[in-house]
């Protein structure tokens, strides 16, 4: 009798031990907002808006480094609304990013390095999947290269070129039917060089030159393709 009781007690103790280990493992796997031995955030994290049970962001850390998918929220009518999704690269600080409206439509998308925009970014018209703007950023997070703006009908509205955050090169503006409205030259973010303005029929309306944002030299004005006025503004000095 004593031997049977001893065996039963040992079996019960073993079951309790196994069950405890199982629960501990599950708890560790599901632990939120944890830290590693160096005090770095590690594992799944959820932060809440202060004084609420509504998440501000959710995501996963690997010894302080964001990895995989993070979701960010704004607070609207006391409820969390998804506003951005970032998918982090485990090898560096790069993340593929999408910003969203309150009803889930993509506002813009591109890549970020920390808080800097890099590479090509695409923006969409409100309540539409039509592209509104495309622009390019260098590794310093400055506009660099072509930037284009489109009408809702998909036609090109504006195009410009940037160099390290400044307008530099030829910019053009168009009507919503594709007609050219204006061309201007820029240098270091200032109008510098020839500018040509067109009428609704595509004919030259005004032709002149800028120097560091100031009109200089000979300016010619046209009406229905004929010269109606010429003025000389000097060299601007």
TrEMBL record:
Keywords, comma-separated and alphabetical: Signal
According to the UniProt entry, where is the signal peptide? Answer: 1-28
Cite the Gene3D superfamilies for this sequence.
3.90.930.1
For this protein, the record's SUPFAM superfamilies field holds: Histone H3 K4-specific methyltransferase SET7/9 N-terminal domain
Say if the entry is tagged with keyword Endoplasmic reticulum: no
Question: Which PANTHER family is this protein grouped with?
Answer: MORN VARIANT REPEAT PROTEIN, TPR REPEAT PROTEIN
From the Swiss-Prot or TrEMBL record, give the protein name. Answer: Toxin-antitoxin system YwqK family antitoxin
**What is the species of this protein?**
Winogradskyella maritima
């Amino acid at each position: 009798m004593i031997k049977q009781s001893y065996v039963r007690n040992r079996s019960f103790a073993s079951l309790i031990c196994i069950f405890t280990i199982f629960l501990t493992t599950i708890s560790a796997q599901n632990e939120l907002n944890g830290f590693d031995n160096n005090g770095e955030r590690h594992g799944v994290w959820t932060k809440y808006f202060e004084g609420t049970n509504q998440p501000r962001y959710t995501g996963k850390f690997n010894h302080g480094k964001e990895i995989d998918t993070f979701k960010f929220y704004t607070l609207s009518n006391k409820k969390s609304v998804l506003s951005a999704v970032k998918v982090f690269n485990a090898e560096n600080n790069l993340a593929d990013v999408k910003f969203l409206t309150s009803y889930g439509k993509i506002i813009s998308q591109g890549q970020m390095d920390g808080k800097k925009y890099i590479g090509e970014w695409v923006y969409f018209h409100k309540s539409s999947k039509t592209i509104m703007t495309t622009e390019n950023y260098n590794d310093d997070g400055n506009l660099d290269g072509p930037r284009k703006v489109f009408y809702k009908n998909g036609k090109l509205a504006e195009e410009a070129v940037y160099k390290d955050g400044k307008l530099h090169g030829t910019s053009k503006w168009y009507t919503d039917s594709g007609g050219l409205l204006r061309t201007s030259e820029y240098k270091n973010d200032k109008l510098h060089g020839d500018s040509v303005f067109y009428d609704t029929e595509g004919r030259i309306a005004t032709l002149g030159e800028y120097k560091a944002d100031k009109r200089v030299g000979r300016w010619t004005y046209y009406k229905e393709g004929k010269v109606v006025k010429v003025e000389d503004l000097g060299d601007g000095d």
